[in-house]
Give the backbone structure.
Amino acid sequence: MADIARLIEVIEPEAAALGFELVRVKMTGSGDERTLQIMAEEPATGQLVVEQCMELSRRISDTIDTVEEDGEELVAGAYHLEVSSPGIDRPLTRAKDFVNWAGHEAKIALSEKVDGHRKLRGALIGAEDDAAIIEDTKAGRVTVPLNMIHSAQLVLTDKLIAATRPLDMSGVEDIDETLEEEEVND
């Protein structure tokens, strides 16, 4: 498997050079079906458009090739490189994510129990002292050390949709909406 910390060391400066911040670097799959998933965002928008993803993908690919040509194997074997924007129901990977999205619903899976719970779901309160704070629907307010979070992401809600504007609305007027008629059998 790949050393994610080392990959971040190599990839983060390339993203920063383009004005982007890394959200997540993750290796998924197994065998020949592995994917190196890079999520990044433009700080001003919290998103990337397709052209920005392509630019970052080329830059990362070239950098990994250069490092490996110099003799360091960053990822053993074949893999696919996937560069994307975090999306509306984005993963929460940094303390600032829990602060920026406070008030929105999230789900958190923990690597071990905190206050008797391994899974939490509820409104984000924020973060402080390297810990996320969530108002869990069952456990109430829970403070979770960031290093105990296995995964966390926003939950798609109407409130989240309303708070997240698309970057580019061009072409939207070309979309035809149709209403499907329901057939009622007597």
Q: What stands out?
A: Confidence is low (pLDDT under 50) at residues 179-186.
